[in-house]
Design brief:
The protein is mostly helical and 94 residues long. 59% of the residues lie in helices and 11% in strands.
Length: 94
């Protein structure tokens, strides 16, 4: 889709912002509402939007793991990928 990594980075940031804006607008009511869709084979489904969103984010994680594996196999140091290591520490209240 993109000819170079810089263009991919720019587009990724733009798409991430669209996703963040969309999620920020979701209410509890919206997340509990049904979503009707038809998959690529023509099968119709009706599922809770909240579960669809959960799948959306989990599936991104799956693909990012695949990319990380491929980059590592090519000798690219992808850095720290453990979410727990990336989450900032908070100071406990004393």
């Amino acid at each position: 889709m993109y000819q170079d990594i810089e263009t991919l980075k720019i587009e990724r940031v733009l798409l991430d912002n669209v996703i963040k804006d969309f999620v920020a607008e979701l209410s509890d009511e919206a997340l509990e509402s049904p979503l009707a869709y038809i998959n690529t084979t023509g099968t119709a489904y009706h599922k809770c939007l909240g579960y669809i969103m959960l799948h959306f984010f989990n599936h991104q994680t799956h693909h990012r793991g695949q990319v990380t594996t491929l980059l590592s196999q090519f000798g690219v140091d992808v850095g720290v990928t453990d979410l727990l290591a990336i989450i900032p520490d908070i100071k406990p209240e004393l």
